[in-house]
Specification:
Helix content: 25-40%
Bound molecules: phosphoenolpyruvate, cobalt (II) ion
Number of helices: 12
Order of helices and strands: HHEHEEEHHHEHEEEHEHEHEEEHEH
Number of strands: 14
Largest sheet: 8 strands, parallel, barrel
Strand order of the largest sheet: 1-2-5-8-9-10-11-14
């Protein structure tokens, strides 16, 4: 760690993994300077509110639902797409709240999830080897070399798309759309006609009845704010550190720094080095932060990370997002749970059952099996039950669209169907039906 005091720029003195090779450094720095002059996307007070909500998760009193795209796209930027993604997340939250009886903290991988870490600097597209796609904040996913050259003008485009997305998210969640009386409306056509859609509809009817019952008892439902709007937070992988630095501002109220590009930021499996730039950056901002934890992480590493990112042991400040794979979770998770518990760190434990279960199908498409995703979740819940710790949440990649990217589920998507509606620019996402199905199963796991 650098001995100097933390500043939003200090990461520049440290090795930063996964940073693009911008063709012209001066252009890049100019783009960052322009960003630094633009308004913040979120406010410090909102980030503090999320920390408090996550503190309740850490205490075992609430559950975290963090979900959205693997990579948001500049090409998919319609009100309908944003609304449909929100619908699924709201549906899942209702299933979890009603099904398991715990408050759900809702955080989207949205309004800023535009940069991707890659295992290899190049990728094979058909027969051609191209520089890897790194998210629309950096380059384009089109299959030609020119499109893959990092372009710093994309940083401002990502900022502006985030601002518009956030504006719509705020309108939807605060302006009536998220009213619990509209619980039926969130069920999209292609979901409603399915097994899991009908199950949802049944539950929505029960909620209607419960609301009518409360009203008949004389309870003033109109005055109960939590029935009419939801708190919905944003998050993304804090990958491109120049972008995050440019949006980091000092809070006038507290004098603390907040990264105002999103409410919550996380570091990924490839950027969580203890002495690296990303962890240093997260250590100084006061937002709630997350870190991905794979099966290869040692207890020493996890404890050092807890000390580094949350030395004050603030409940809700740090979320550990385990992504171990269905086969590894039973062995790899318990020692970490025990060590963190013994050390007295008040973390949120969330399960990302997506990134440890990715494989390439015979047809050459990246995919995940619904059953593997479920199996990792079961292993996560079992390990927490045995350790006496709280399985605090899930971290998922999903979309509101009727895509065919993950295998299995009620609709039983088969390998030879993957090509039908495979639209992700990066990792395979659950479609809306698979996501609702998963929510019901997680609610069951939580209940027992
Ligand atoms: C992701 O969340 O999209 C991701 C790349 O995850 P990880 O860093 O855990 O591989
Ligand atoms: Co992903």
């Amino acid at each position: 760690m650098s001995p100097t005091v933390w500043t939003p720029q200090r990461w520049r003195e440290l090795p930063a993994a996964q940073q693009p090779e911008w063709p012209d450094e001066d252009d890049y720095e100019r783009a960052l300077k322009q960003l630094a002059a633009l308004p913040p996307l979120v406010f410090a007070g909102e980030a503090r509110r999320l920390t408090r909500a996550l503190g309740q998760v850490a205490a075992g009193e609430a559950f975290l639902l963090q979900a959205g795209d693997c990579a948001e796209s500049f090409a998919e930027f319609s009100a309908d797409a944003i609304r449909d993604k929100l619908k699924v997340i709201l549906q899942m939250a209702v299933v979890l709240t009603y099904g398991a009886g715990v408050p759900v903290v809702k955080v989207g991988r949205i309004a800023g999830q535009f940069a991707k870490p890659r295992s290899s600097p190049t990728e094979l597209v058909g027969e051609v080897e191209l520089p890897a796609f790194r998210g629309h904040m950096v380059n384009d996913d089109a299959a030609d070399a020119a499109a893959r050259v990092p372009d710093p003008r994309r940083l401002a485009a990502a900022y502006h798309q985030s601002a518009s997305t956030l504006n719509l998210v705020r309108a939807f969640t605060k302006g009536g759309f998220a009213d619990l009386s509209r619980v039926h409306v969130w069920n999209q056509q292609f979901v409603a006609s399915s097994e899991e859609g009908r199950r949802y509809e049944q539950m929505a009817n029960e909620i209607d009845r419960a609301l009518r019952f409360m009203a008949a008892c004389g309870i003033d439902l109109g005055g109960e704010e939590s029935l009419h709007q939801v708190d919905f937070y944003t998050s993304h992988d804090a990958l491109i550190l120049g972008y995050e630095e440019a949006l980091t501002r000092m809070d006038s109220l507290t004098g603390d720094y907040y990264d105002c590009s999103a409410h919550m930021l996380w570091v990924g499996e490839r950027t969580r080095q203890l002495d690296g730039a990303h962890v240093d950056f997260l250590s100084g901002i006061h937002n709630p932060v997350g870190c991905k934890v794979s099966a290869s992480m040692t207890t020493e590493e996890v404890l050092a990370l807890c000390e580094r990112l949350n030395p004050g042991r603030v409940p809700g400040r740090l979320t550990l997002i385990t992504r171990m794979g269905a086969a590894a979770v039973a062995d790899a998770l318990p020692p970490l749970l025990a060590a963190v518990q013994d050390a007295g760190h008040p973390v949120v434990w969330a399960c990302d059952p997506m990134h440890g279960n990715t494989f390439v199908s015979e047809g050459g498409r990246k995919t995940r099996r619904f059953d593997d995703i479920l199996a990792e979740l079961r292993g996560f819940f079992a390990a927490h039950l045995a350790a006496g710790t709280w399985p605090g949440g899930v971290h998922l990649e999903l979309t509101g669209d009727d895509v065919t990217e993950c295998l299995g589920g009620f609709g039983d998507i088969l390998e030879d169907q993957l090509h039908e509606r495979y639209t992700t620019t990066c990792d395979p996402r659950l479609n809306a039906r698979q996501a609702i199905d998963l929510a019901f199963r997680v609610a069951e796991m939580l209940r027992t």
